[in-house]
Write a structure and sequence with these properties.
The complex is a heterodimer of chains A (about 350) and B (about 290). With about 350 residues, chain A is of the alpha+beta class. Chain A contains nine helices and 19 strands. In chain A, strand 18 and strand 19 form a beta hairpin. The radius of gyration of chain A is 24 Å and the shape is globular. The relative contact order of chain A is 0.12. The chains are: A alpha+beta (about 350), B mainly alpha (about 290).
Chain lengths: ~350, ~290
């Protein structure tokens, strides 16, 4: 277990000039010892690169990686004592499930009794005890991925366990179970866990802190609550939440802070109000969807679109009607150049 | 009962014709010869299994068969490991990879009889590079005089000629292994040998099976190279099956025994390929349920 400090940048091509040449723009970040983190972002945002740099599979083109203050930039994954689980199941075809799970321990010369005990414990946790002596090659994809997870968790003394979208190939109901298992393991063993995903629900339920990334940049690090209430970057507002944050030109609302160009408000906080209420905006309703537990209303004010999540027991305005929506209030954020200003 | 659609037969007719003319008819001609004694184009006598019996009792043939089996096994034992080793040490990407691929493939582009001629000259002690070098080192090397030398030369020649095929197949097989396997192995702390044993070798099983079968069948039918190099000699030290067969059929025009032996030859190859294939399938997928773990 270790605290991990990153101060680096990475480009896959030599002599990067422009921002686009970088897979990871210069960033400074710390992962607390024993913390559960998620790296969240769309495909190609650099999250897997960041993970591989932490594990030592990729060497950053500049900067350093420190574990507990010790520079490990040039060290191999084995020297860093890292466990990593990949997106697609990797199993050793010729081995049984038990041999697969024992492989990382065997390579490190752990005593046979200890191996047996760990493999037994992990198999029990993954509910694979009955399949220990089955050849791994013949199993279904989700069982194979459980083996990969097991190999990542079988060592107790690791600096950190890294997951690279490990639940992609797993059935939804099993996904829930496994995510709960991972959380439980985190509580029991106090391992540092870093979890890469593009699924916000997965990130927000798994992690204590979520790192939101886009185009090689970590735009915000924070708890689920912080990401929801105060997105530091418009991308975070867009990406987190379903639907994402509404963004309107700040000029539409008098009283916006100086310099702010955009106003952001979560659909959850938009309410239908009486005409001419302070902080409200008139807009024409263009769509009204019943999404079971709530109404999703879409309205247009000029060129700007406002989405509102209204409680299921209210009667929302009909399509074509003009209604007033509260957009400026205590939950409103203001942005300039995509960055939060107030 | 459903009505039977007889028209379907017409659809398989082209295939039936192709197979008939390319395989069945030629083979049946051989079967025809193998049960008759052809005295002259007009006179022929049905002799039943007579030729088969005499061919099986033929000492020369038994000798040739034994030599052939030893030769093919040696070829496999040498070419497969060397081929895997070559493939593992070849650069995987960049211009170096392309350059090495071309260099490795060169020997595959040379016609069989040219290969024989090349080695015939190469091994000569007066003008050949290898022969002269060996002579300078004080080794009395002569592929025409010593049975051992002839054997070794034919074997080395085949290894030189065909190992690149195994190497290219393995190279392709290695490139098909996803990077994630190597990454996972690094995370799991696997040694280089463990990576080879538990990732590369199992993933190469498919191409290795093809390589083994191809090299086995090809070496079992080897004819041109030893014919050009040693002519089957000295004595009959390097007379392999097909050369023996050619002597019988074309040299002595013993069509009956030659045909009978051709069929036996064919069946031997079929049988050995069947055994090899099944054995390799078994090795790859054998259940290890008995193993005690956890």
């Amino acid at each position: 277990m270790a605290r991990i400090d990153l101060d680096l940048a990475h480009a896959y091509r030599p002599n990067p000039q422009k921002d686009e040449d970088y897979a990871l723009l210069p960033l400074k970040m710390s992962f607390r010892d024993g913390g559960a983190y998620a790296l969240l972002g769309p495909s190609g945002c650099g999250k897997t690169t960041l993970l591989n740099i932490v594990s030592g599979l990729v060497m950053p083109s500049q900067g350093t990686v420190k574990f507990d203050g010790v520079d490990v930039t040039g060290k191999t994954p084995q020297q860093r004592n890292i466990a990593q689980v990949f997106q697609f199941p990797v199993i050793y075809d010729t081995m049984t499930v038990a041999e697969n799970l024992a492989f990382p321990l065997k390579n490190r010369g752990v005593a046979p009794e200890k191996i047996k005990q760990r493999v037994g414990a992990i198999a029990e946790m993954l509910e694979m005890s009955g399949q220990l002596n089955v050849r791994a090659a013949g199993l279904a994809a989700d069982a194979k991925q459980k083996i990969s997870l097991g190999r990542g968790l079988v060592r107790e003394d690791v600096s950190a366990v890294l997951f690279d979208e490990p639940l992609t190939v797993i059935d939804p109901h099993l996904k829930w179970q496994l995510r709960r298992k991972l959380k439980q393991i985190h509580h029991e063993l106090k391992l540092t866990l870093i979890y890469v995903t593009h699924d916000q629900v997965e990130a927000l339920t798994f992690a204590e802190e979520v790192v939101v990334m886009t185009r090689g940049r970590a735009v915000q690090i924070g708890s689920a609550d912080q990401l929801f209430e105060r997105p530091k970057h418009t991308f975070v507002g867009h990406f987190i939440g379903s639907p994402g944050m509404n963004f309107l030109p700040a000029s539409l609302m008098p009283g916006s802070p100086d310099g702010a160009t955009l106003l952001g408000i979560r659909p959850e906080y938009v309410k239908v109000t009486a005409a001419n209420t302070a902080g409200a905006l008139a807009a024409v309703v263009t769509q009204r969807q019943d999404v079971g537990t709530y109404w999703l209303v879409t309205a247009k004010a000029g060129d700007s679109v406002i989405r509102a999540r209204l409680s299921a027991d209210t009667t929302p305005p009909a399509v074509g009607e003009t209604a007033w929506f509260s957009v400026a209030g205590s939950h409103t954020c203001y942005y300039k150049n995509e960055e939060l200003v107030a | 009962m459903k009505p039977v659609n007889q028209k379907a037969w017409f659809l398989i007719l082209p295939v039936v014709l192709c197979v008939a003319f390319s395989a069945v008819l030629p083979l049946m001609t051989v079967v025809n010869y193998s049960v008759q004694d052809i005295i002259s184009p007009e006179r022929r006598v049905f002799v039943g299994t007579e030729w088969f019996k005499s061919v099986m009792r033929d000492d020369d043939l038994q000798g040739a068969l034994l030599r052939q089996i030893i030769f093919s096994l040696s070829v496999l034992l040498l070419e497969i490991p060397i081929g895997i080793g070559l493939a593992l040490s070849m650069p995987a990407t960049g211009w170096r990879s392309s350059a090495v691929l071309v260099l490795v493939a060169i020997s595959l582009l040379i016609p069989w009889n040219v290969v024989g001629t090349i080695w015939q000259i190469y091994g000569r002690t007066d003008i050949g590079l290898m022969g002269a070098a060996l002579a300078k080192l004080g080794i009395e090397y002569s592929y025409t005089g010593s049975a051992t030398h002839a054997w070794l030369t034919v074997l080395v020649m085949d290894v030189w000629h065909w190992t690149p095929l195994v190497a290219l197949l393995c190279f392709a097989g290695l490139r098909a292994i996803p990077d994630a396997y190597y990454q996972a192995a690094r995370i799991d702390g696997a040694s280089k040998f463990a990576v080879f044993r538990f990732i590369q070798l199992p993933k190469l099983r498919g191409v290795l099976m093809i390589a083994v079968l191809l090299r086995f069948m090809d070496s079992f039918m080897i004819y041109t190279e030893p014919f050009v190099l040693t002519g089957g000699g000295p004595g009959n030290a390097t007379t392999f099956l097909s050369q023996y067969l050619t002597q019988k059929a074309v040299g002595q025009f013993d069509l009956g025994p030659a045909a009978a032996f051709s069929l036996i030859y064919f069946l031997i190859i079929l049988l050995l390929c069947f055994i090899l294939y099944n054995w390799m399938q078994r090795v790859g997928t054998a259940s290890t349920e008995g193993a005690q773990h956890g």
